[in-house]
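Database export, one record per block. Field names are fixed; values are copied verbatim from the stored entry.
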Amino acid sequence: MQAFDTNVLVRVLIGDDPRQTPVAEEAFLRHARGEGVFVSQVVLAELGWVLRSGYGLSRAQVHERLARLVRTRGVFVEAVQVTLDALERYRNGSADLADLLILGRAAQEQATPLLTFDCKLAHEDGAELLEAP
């Protein structure tokens, strides 16, 4: 299996660099058809941030691209069910994808509620707002 960094997957998902995009796409397809592509949750969190902040994609567009990536034949994602659940929460909520991945992993480890100062995340099931005096 071959791991891919965020910057390579951005080229695959966005196709914005005429030099790097074809190289990234060829490597992605070759490995997806071969031994597989590994995508970590950290890379997915970075992808969510880059697509939203750097490219101005909407939550729905980010969700659609990442959900399609996660479901691509030959792509193996760390904690796939936690990841799919976090993507669904992301599409329907207001919390950041990275925070929802953290929340999902905490729940998987039965380490909830997840204490947070983040008001958006605190609205999610399994999270609790920690308030400073």
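Remark 1: The two ends are 49 Å apart (CA to CA).
Remark 2: The first helix runs from residue 6 to 14.
End of record.
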